[in-house]
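Hey everyone, long-time lurker, first post.

I ran two proteins through the pipeline my lab uses and got sequence/structure pairs for each. Pasting them in order. The first:
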Amino acid sequence: MADSNGTAKTAESRARGIRATGRRRKGPTRRRRALTITLCTLTSVVLLGGAGLGYVYFKLNGNLKGVDINAALGHDRPKNVDDGSMDILVMGSDSRAGKNGEYGKDEGGARSDTAMIVHVYKGRKKASVVSVPRDTMIKRPDCIKDGKDVPGARRAMFNTAFEVGGPACAVKTVESISGVRMDHFVEVDFTGFKKLIDALGGVDITTSKAIDDDHSHLHLKPGKHNLNGEQSLGLVRTRHGVPGGDGSDLGRIQLQQAFIKALMNQVKNVGVLTNPTKLYDIADTATRAITTDTELNSVSELTGLAKSLGNIGSENIDMVTLPVTYDPANPDRVVPLEKKSEQVWDALRLDKAIPKSAIKGSAGDQGGTDKYVK
């Protein structure tokens, strides 16, 4: 993924303690369910690195799992533009295997329950996050999984890419619809998410109206709450029982985004600087919870990324949903609004802010469920 000067740049970056990885090597990103987990992971690792705990490095490295996205996709990808920005695909897995079986029947595959493209701008002081509804109908490209061809489809739900082709196919699908090269990939599953929230001591939120959803087993009265891992998972999975919601994935996305903002703000006050035991527990839990691309699956790489993300707060993140409308062929699905979606992708490619005009009129901007949680 390096350009003609890649070797020199990499050596220089390593000398600074930050490895230049990905298309836009100096910038990072973050947001939403899995993205927040990434943030916690990176922050914890940075602090541990400052303590110089060699054993801890070794232990945490052993927790991490990596997928070689670059080798799987080869050279048929969007241009690798080294302009100081960065794009990361962050996904939440809805696999029902193992301990996740309590959330539904294991059908032998995992789909992307959450998908976000996180764009960190040059200078690493702000970011934009584009949530892709899992029920979005797209053209899925041909993929390869475990050495076997996985045929594409002219019309498929976005989240099937992860199910049939794994992380590499999910990345290829995002790149094919956006024209934006993904520098990194991060995935987290249900169980890892719950454990991380519990390790953090829960997340404080305020609901302005009651949330009652038997599907996600979440029942909250209006007021302030400290959500544990199970309750937090229920909130980010909730589609029903939310005032103002339409029971669709679009309303759930807005809840997820509101939750992430609350979690990001709380991480700042978790007290890990003065509590080494808590710090280690968070770092250990977080590194067990995630799967990354092979360029990020080491403590040193995550440390470098964390340092470059340090100036981005929740107030500096613009979160949007991919502009969509309900599918005329199936009202339970959505399809991208092509011109508006292209405005979004153009902004990311050019490292510019996403224009408000791109989101106006999109079904994803009309759920209104975010105003019930803060």
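...and the second, right after it:
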Amino acid sequence: MSRPNETPPVGFHPGELAVQQRAGVRAEATRLSGMLRPPDLHGGAAGFLAERTLAAITARDDSGRLWISPLTGPPGVLDVIAASTLRVHTAPAAADPLHGLPPGQPVGLLAIDFATRRRFRVNGTLTTADEDGLTLHVDQAYGNCPQYIQRRRLQPGPGAATEDGDGPPVRYATSLASDQARLIPAADTFFLGTTHPERGNDASHRGGPPGFVRVEGDSLWWPDYPGNNMFNSLGNLAVDSAAALLFADFATGHTVHLSGTAVLEWSPGGSDNDEGGTGRRVRFHIGSVVDGSGAPRHAPHPVRRPPHRKD
């Protein structure tokens, strides 16, 4: 991962290229490689980020374990202060596995607006983490397509950095409790954190019909639906199996954080294992589980589900 005074690498890394090659979409992905140029957050990006009330951040805790956590607050909580600098006026809550996350590490951040089905990826280095929030030096920043984002309106949550930091301790487990095992298969949305030894951490979103994530003992799996063919997350997993998942109950604010490893599984197109119509699915093996309560809640509007594409 590049540091703020280094020139970040540009273009797809070998893991992304390998998945693109096997999927037969190298040409399509190449046309999108310009999105990976060094960013300028001014203009439309700054406006979009300034209006957001929810983001997810991928980082490592003090022990080096990878997690992905929610960041919530009123509009303005994500603040572009320079072309490649993002200030986040909040931080993971006291009972979150990333509370007090150490600076000087790579992070990935995904800002999302469910109401308009828009999302924006920010990858870079966490340069400061203090009582007022986080500062990111940004190496990559680009939008993603709206596919599989369930349209919903959420009430902004309070920013954790404005709290006194007191709260219940983080409670770790190595397997799912019964309520967690019920929440996950009912979810139509989760956030995925992955990592790469040179490119750093990444945060992304996955969506589908309720039940698209299956729980099988101490592992989960979900189909990989057609997307933009860049394969940022799957390319990272091809190089480093560390992964983190974040599930949220938007009715209660309850969250379930998972940290472990994941592997991309390939199957013949059209087989019984090819639910997504791509010949790909991801299997995640649970290492650690943490309960939380940092998700924003539904506003009084129904969830509107986008068409579910399999072709």
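Reply from user beta_strand_b:
Welcome! Quick read of the second one: The mean pLDDT is 88. Residues 185 and 275 are 16 Å apart (CA to CA).
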